[in-house]
Structures are given as structure tokens and as C-alpha cells.
Amino acid sequence: EKFKDGLSKTRNNFANKVNDLVARYRKVDEDFFEELEEILIQADVGFNTVMELIDELKMEVKRKNISDPTEVQSAISEKLVEIYQSGEKTTGHINIQEDSLTVILFVGVNGVGKTTTIGKLAHMYKQQGKNVILAAGDTFRAGAIDQLEVWGNRVGVDVVKHSEGSDPAAVMFDAIQSARAKSADILLCDTAGRLQNKVNLMNELEKVKRVIEREIPGAPHEVLLVLDATTGQNALLQAKTFKEVTNVSGIVLTKLDGTAKGGIVLAIRNELNIPVKFVGLGEKMDDLQAFDPEKYVYGLFS
Ligand code: GDP
């Protein structure tokens, strides 16, 4: 239900328009596909993905000799899911180590919802009975450390921090020692998100990762890039830049509740080949969900 509520804007802008299109046309023709294309583009599905989808739909219509638009409607949902899953199947799976410390690194520019996501995930894992620690690795932005502490208090987990301006790699080192001393299960690490200077960003992330790798072979177990769904195609550009500076293993797409252009999920998956692992559907502690493409697409059209 929360999932459905959170997607109401996208449903109105995207799914309802498709439903309306299907109701208006009596037979599937070139105009029908042109209008469908327009709706998909408007929903930020992404140009290449839209072209792929339309081509496949046209082939299906030909192969099955379909003329009734309502028969195309179910094919649209099927193809959307199929396109999403053309890489690997993902239903929010996170590489959790069962018997040892799992380290998850969060990257992304300021304001996308990185701190909020860390707080929400800490809450989710704590509810699963796991011992969670947060590392305040964004030592650059004023207020970032305090903000993470607010979430730590809210959720009831420890935050390892140094003072503003200190070396983030040193914060990670301390956080790992602390996690070991407390036999923590999961360490969630914040990082600074300056895109203005790519070289600095890369150096800082590399240094942080080096410390983590040295302390725990095989870690970080996930590098999650946080993107703001309301920024649309700009989110795609950010993702491309972060892909150049570090190995991103998954995406958290925030503020999906705040956009009518939820097609961006498909564009990200299809154009970057990075799975979306979680979606943010609000500002509160429980407003984070593992991303399941079938649930998403069928939820939109139901
Ligand atoms: P950071 O700078 O990347 O750490 O971003 P913050 O975590 O401070 O989030 C920036 C703003 O976005 C805050 O006002 C959050 O409450 C809000 N926010 C984060 N995630 C979501 C979400 O999924 N939905 C909505 N509506 N707001 C969100």
C-alpha cells in the first residue's frame, strides 16, 4: 500500500495516460505508437529504452496479429519488466555477509537524500535484529556529521565521527575498529559528494576504499550510489560521472514519491546497467523499499 501511495504521481502522469490512450484508440496503428512513445518519453523512461520498447511492441503486435489496443496494454507492462530484467534479476538484493561485518559505502552528491537513506537502512537492518554502526565520512559539508547523528539517535545506533574537515579515511579506520569491538553486523558509511572536482572526489573515495579494503578483505561489500528521482535526466549524468570514478554496485533512487516521471528507474537500469536496489518513497524512517521491478510496473498499472 505504501508503495502504491508513493507512486501516485507517476501513476497519474504515466499509467493513467497509457490507460487513457488504450481507451481512446479502436485499433493499434502508427498514431497509437507515436502517442505511446510521447507518453513514455514524458515519463523519463529514456530515449533508447523507449525505442527498444516500441520496436519490441511493434514486433509483438505483428507476430500475434493484434489490433485491439487493450491487448497491447498488458504487453506494455510485460515488456517494461522484461527490459528491466534483461541484465540480472534484482529484487533489492544486498551482498550481506552472514558471519562477519558487512561494509556498505554510500556515494552521491549533496541533497539527493544520502543521509536519509543511511538512516532508513539502519532502521531496516536494526529491525531485522542486526547490530548497525554509522560512519560519518562526509567531513567536508558543514552539518553533515550532525545530521547523521540526528538519524543515529532517531534509529538508536552508534555513529563514529571526527571533527569537520578531518580525513574521511581516518573516520573509516576508526569506524571499523569500533564495529569490531562491538561485534557489529553492518557498517554504513557516508561520504562527501563533491562533483565539482572529479579528481578530488576520486582521490578521496579511493583513499577511503583503500582503508576499508586493507582492514577487511572483500569490503566494501556494496557501493551504493544515491540518486534523486526528481532530477530526471540529470540523475543519469551524475550516475555516469560516479561510474567513472568508482565501482558502483547498486543504486538507491530517492524521492520517487515526489516525481511524476518514475520511468527514470527503467532508464537508469537500461542505460547504465546498474541495478536499482532500493527506492525512497518519503522522508520517514520506513519510507524505503527494496526495489522489485514486477511490483513496480504492475503496481503502477493496477
Ligand atoms: P544528503 O545531502 O544527500 O544527505 O540529503 P538528505 O538526506 O539531507 O536529504 C535531502 C532532503 O531530501 C531532506 O529534506 C530529506 O527529507 C529529503 N528526502 C530524502 N529522501 C526522500 C524521499 O525518498 N522522499 C522524499 N519526499 N524526500 C526525501
Keywords:
12% strand; binds guanosine-5'-diphosphate; alpha/beta; 52% helix; GTP-binding; 302 residues; single chain
Give a verbal description of the structure.
This protein has 302 residues and is of the alpha/beta class. Helices cover 52% and strands 12% of the residues. It is built from twelve helices and eight strands. It has helices at 2-6, 8-24, 30-42, 47-63, 69-84, 114-127, 144-155, 168-181, 198-215, 233-245, 264-272, 293-301; strands at 102-107, 132-135, 158-160, 186-189, 222-228, 250-254, 276-280, 288-290. It has an eight-stranded mixed beta sheet with strand order 3-2-4-1-5-6-7-8, with helices on both faces. Strand 7 and strand 8 (288-290) form a beta hairpin. It is elongated. It starts with a helix and ends with a helix. The mean pLDDT is 92. The site of guanosine-5'-diphosphate has 18 residues, from helix 6.
Low-confidence stretches: none
| Number of strand elements | 8
Radius of gyration: 21 Å
C-alpha geometry: elongated
Q: Approximately how much beta-strand content do the residues carry?
A: 5-15%
Strand arrangement across the biggest beta sheet: 3-2-4-1-5-6-7-8
Average pLDDT taken over every residue: 92
User: What's the story with the biggest beta sheet?
Assistant: 8 strands, mixed
Percent helix: 40-55%
Helices and strands: which structural class?
Answer: alpha/beta
Bound molecules: guanosine-5'-diphosphate
Briefly summarize what is shown.
The chain is an alpha/beta fold. Helices cover 52% and strands 12% of the residues. The protein binds guanosine-5'-diphosphate.
